[in-house]
Each structure stands twice: as C-alpha cells, then as structure tokens.
From TrEMBL:
Organism ancestry: Bacteria, Pseudomonadati, Bacteroidota, Flavobacteriia, Flavobacteriales
Aerobactin siderophore biosynthesis IucA/IucC N-terminal domain location: 146-396
Pathway recorded for this protein: Siderophore biosynthesis
Residue stretches making up the Aerobactin siderophore biosynthesis IucA/IucC-like C-terminal domain: 418-573
Organism: Flavivirga aquimarina
Coiled coil: none
This protein's name: IucA/IucC family siderophore biosynthesis protein
C-alpha cells in the first residue's frame, strides 16, 4: 500500500529550496575535501582574516571562487554566500552533483564507485530539502523541546561525511515512512525463529521469557504463542524477535523464502507499541512506552559506507561485553563522580540463514540480515528536573541560520565560558579516564552521546552503541566472551580515538559555531579543553607514562580522512574488526592544544 502519492513524494523539491541546499552542501564539500587535502584551493588575495580562494577542475574553463578562514585543525570556515561558479567567466548556478563530476579525477573516484556516490549525494540533498521545507521547530523552540523532537529535527547528519544521507535501498515512500526526520511512528514486525537457527543472549539475570513478556505484554505474547500452537508447532522450540518492516518486505520475505516455507522462520504479527527511528536509522525509540528498551535491528540499506546489517556472531557476545564495560564504570569511583552512564545492550537475537552462512566462509551482508538487540532506555537514567538531548544537536543550525548551541547558552543564563567548561568537563573527563586507566576507547561522536541537561546546562553524558564500537588496547587477560574487542595497536594510532573522534570530528565543528554565534574566541575554546585535560592528569599522576606515550599536547596530530575511505569504497569503507589497519591518513594537523601544554 502506498503511503504518499507520487506528487507528494516530490512536493518539497522546490527550485528555491533545492538551490539553497546545494549552496549549503557545496560549502561542506569544499570545506571537508580541502580539510582532507583532496582539494587544494588557490589563495588569490587576503583581507583581514579572510582569504579569497579559487578552485579549478581539469576543465580550466570552470572556476569556483569563495571566501574562507582556515581555523584550527585545518578547518575551512567558508562564507556560504561568497561561493560563485564561473564557466568561461559566465556565472553559473551551484550544483553539488555537477561539482563532484567536474572534480572526479582530482578526487580519485573510480568508475565503479562514482555512480552510486552520486546517488548518495542526490539522496542527501533530497533529505535536506525535506527537512528544510518543514520549517519548524526553530533553534529557540528546540531549547524547550523534548528528547525525541530534538532527535528528529537534526538536519546536517555526520559533520565530516559529504555523502552522509544516502540510504540506498529506500524509495521515496520508504523515506516518508522510516526516515528519522519524517518522525512517523510505526510498528515493528515480529517473527519466530527456530532454535536450530536462532540464538538469544542476554545479560545476567534477564531470561528469555521475562524479556518477551516485558517487551510484548502478556496478551500479545499469548497471541503469538497461539499462532505456533495452531500450526501444531511447539513454541518452546522457537525464539521471538522483531524486524524492521522494510527488511521484511524487501529482504527476508524473499531471500529467506525457503526458511519461511519450512517453518524455520514464522511471521507472528506487528507490535502494539509504536516506535520512532533515531538518527542512526536502525535504532528505534518506543514512544508508546518510553521507559521500555530501544530496539535495534538489521536494516540492509547502504548508508555512509556500510550496509547496515548486524552480525549473529557479534550478537552472541554483545550482552557480555556490555556487562563487562558496565562493571568497570560502576566500580570506578571517578566515573561515578562524573555520573558517566552507559546504556547497556541487554539482550540480542541472531538468526542465521544456513544457505548464506555455509555458501562461503567470507563475511558478507547476507549473513547479517536478521538480528535484533534491546538497549536500555535513557528515560530511566535521569531525574525529574533533567532532560535529554543528542549531542549532535550542539552543531544544529536551523533554517533561519540560528544556532541551537547559542540558544541553549542564552537560556541557561550563565556565561559562554562557564557553559562550555561544564560541557567539556562532562563530556571529555570520563572518556579520558576510560582511555588512560583502562586502555578503552569508544566512538563518542555526536549521535552516540546523549547529553543530560539541567536548566539547559550539560551535567553528564550517556554513552550508547557499546557492543559494536568499544575496543580495548590489549588481547591478553580479557574474558573469553569479551576477547573480540581486544585490539593491539600502536600508541600513534590508538590516540586517534580521541584526536579523530572527539577533536577532529566534533570539536572542529563546535568551535566555529561558538566563534560565529556566541562571540567566543577560538583559542578560548581550546584553552578550556586543555584545562580539562590538565585537571584530569593532575588528579591521576600515576598514568604519567601513558600521558607521555599518548600525548594529547603533541605539536602535531595525524590527519585521518573519512571521506577518502568512502571515495575509495562506498559499499564497505573498512573492515570493522580491524578498522585501524585501513585508515586513510593524509599528513598531519597542528594541534591547538599544544599552545596550552
């Protein structure tokens, strides 16, 4: 059944909006590709702190001109209104897709990668136009909005990636049903998998039956059980689990047809609870019962360098890994003083299709099509006077050009300096402790961090997505169920988990917003970050050797290039089991913290 009419699916593609989104997107393209040294703009002249730059592709009749400041960490802060395109000195409209084609050889695209990359760019623009066409809520209104309203108002996506909203596999109807910015609640589909192919794993103290009753309720659980008994099938031989509706219609019903025909996989029905997709698109917040767990499922669309499946092998050890990390957090007095919280992934189900599992030993997306996990709800982690907000929101600029960060600071009624200090200490301090004391790193980018706010001021953070993204820099001494997260890498690469994930992928974008919207000097921001690090190191002098070997105040930082990964292979950027090995590096960055060592 069609959700929207053909005309409705393109209603937001107005020429004026399309032009505006292309201009904003081209600003990001030039900024990020120049940051990664894929493009090398030519300086034509300078005026005050600004430079006038030119970019010319291999077709020398074409030239792009723009004004920019180069900030710390080689961040290209571009005046969006200054971007001009000329072809034989005749002004031309800005076009992101055409820009990629014009510079394809300079950027290093292969013929195999380029067409799908262009599709991802077009999809990114399509989504930007849709969010922009909604208009509201403004940045000011978002300061008073609830957790999910803020979650679904985000426009920009990942700050580094240029093609960050590809969602290859979704059609226009799917977009309006399942994209987080559409904010349209939907039910999940529930299946029963035979135990010969299905494995349930959970944290200590949570058994399968209790888990199902908590998620489904007595009546729905009984109804699903009766479906099996009516088929003269023993329910004790099956495990219930949810799947995304798109996954069922587009993948499982067809690709798993043999398992369905042979009652290894049985359709049960749709959830009574309604869910909203989060920014990560395959994770869902229960809006019918907000204190219930998040649900995360396999979703075989291509988005930002990966098909978003989930591995049954990873599911098997995910609860144990979460328990192991939580034990460290709970038993550490400093992390408790920081009120550092992780959202445990408490239970998982992995369904294995034997055809695809046995067809080849090589890892592939067909082996990752039918998994689910349940993660704690953050709503149970806060006090009545507190509210939640994705950290990605600190980078949000609304359709009127206003910053949510500046509006939060205004609403807090404290100074910019005090607000930034509270934020950085809340965010950075526990991550430093995990890194230096336990050799443990996460992937604490904006979408993976939930800020806890009191009176619009951050007081602590909640970290999610533990099982897939935690790593420990050792292989010996880990429990058997945790061994897959052991990574032995050099200090030079290990420290990139802070340099890249925190400094380059978040602070690099946060600082210019503070400069432009909050009248905060760039060096003042980095000085606060340096003070936070010094404060931590003074409190824990016993880790001095680690401070020296993984020196956050080193003069230079290795530059990790994320877009280069996607340009090289936009179907699978890296092998996630050994991501350090496949990093794309390009020179070094001057470390802004070095001035405050």
């Amino acid at each position: 059944m069609t959700f929207i009419s053909p005309s409705e699916s393109i209603k937001h593609l107005d020429n004026k909006v399309w032009s505006k989104m292309n201009r904003l997107h081209l600003k990001k393209i030039i900024s990020e590709f120049s940051h990664e040294c894929l493009l090398k703009p030519k300086l034509l002249s300078t005026e005050d702190d600004w430079g006038l730059y030119q970019l010319t592709p291999n077709d020398i009749s074409i030239a792009y001109h723009f004004r920019a400041k180069i900030m710390h960490l080689d961040h290209w802060f571009i005046d969006v209104d200054s971007i001009k395109k000329y072809d034989k000195e005749i002004s031309k409209p800005l076009d992101s897709i055409k820009f990629i084609i014009e510079f394809k050889d300079i950027l290093g695209f292969s013929d195999a990668v380029l067409p799908m990359y262009l599709e991802e760019i077009s999809s990114t623009l399509y989504g930007s136009c849709y969010v922009y066409s909604l208009g509201e809520p403004s940045a000011k209104k978002l300061t008073e909005a609830d957790y999910q309203t803020i979650e679904h108002a985000m426009i920009a996506g990942h700050p580094c990636f240029v093609a960050n909203n590809g969602r290859v596999g979704f059609d226009a109807d799917d977009y309006r049903r399942y994209a987080p910015e559409s904010a349209d609640p939907f039910s999940l589909i529930w299946l029963a998998g035979h135990k010969s192919n299905t494995e349930f794993t959970s944290v200590t103290g949570l058994n399968y039956k209790d888990m199902m009753l908590e998620e489904l309720g007595d009546d729905l659980h009984a109804s699903y059980t009766s479906i099996l008994t009516s088929k003269k099938i023993n329910p004790e031989e099956y495990i219930f689990f949810p799947v995304h509706p798109w996954q069922w219609y587009n993948k499982l019903a067809i690709i798993f047809a043999s398992d369905i025909a042979n009652d290894l996989l049985i359709y049960l029905g749709c959830s009574l609870d309604k869910y909203l997709p989060q920014q990560s698109i395959r994770t869902f917040f229960n809006i019918s019962s907000p204190n219930k767990r998040y649900v995360k499922t396999s979703l075989s669309i291509l988005n930002m360098g990966f098909t978003r499946g989930m591995s049954p092998y990873y599911m098997r050890t995910t609860p144990s890994i979460n328990e192991w990390v939580e034990k460290i957090v709970i038993e550490d007095s400093y992390l408790q003083a920081c009120n550092f919280i992780i959202l445990k992934e408490e239970a998982t189900v992995g369904y294995t299709n034997r055809y695809y599992q046995n067809a080849t030993e090589a890892d592939n997306d067909y082996k990752k099509m039918s998994c689910a996990l349940w993660r704690e709800s953050p709503m149970k982690k806060i006090k009545p006077n507190q509210k939640l907000m994705t950290m990605a929101a600190l980078l949000h600029i609304d359709m009127y050009g206003e910053s949510l960060l500046s509006e939060l600071i205004k609403a807090s009624k404290i100074s910019v300096t005090d607000w930034v200090k509270k934020y950085i200490y809340s965010y950075l301090s526990p991550l430093l402790h995990c890194f230096y004391k336990y050799d443990m790193r996460f992937m604490p980018h904006g979408e993976n961090i939930i800020l806890v706010l009191e009176d619009h001021v951050p007081v602590n953070i909640i970290l999610k997505d533990i099982g897939e993204e935690v790593a420990v820099n050792k292989k010996e001494g880990l429990p058997e169920s945790v061994k897959r997260i052991g990574r032995q890498v050099s200090d030079e690469l290990r420290i990139l988990s802070i340099y890249t994930q925190i400094f380059d992928c978040f602070f690099r974008f946060l600082s210019p917003i503070l400069v432009e919207h909050c009248d905060c000097k760039e060096d003042d921001f980095w000085h606060i970050a340096a003070d936070c690090i010094h404060t931590y190191q003074q409190q824990f002098p016993e880790f001095k050797d680690k401070y020296d070997s993984c020196n956050l105040f080193a003069p230079e930082v290795i530059k990790t290039c994320l877009n280069r990964l996607q340009i090289r292979n936009n179907r699978k950027m890296i092998n996630t089991s050994n991501s350090h090995k496949e990093q794309q590096l390009s020179g070094v960055l001057k470390n802004p913290l070095a001035n405050f060592k």
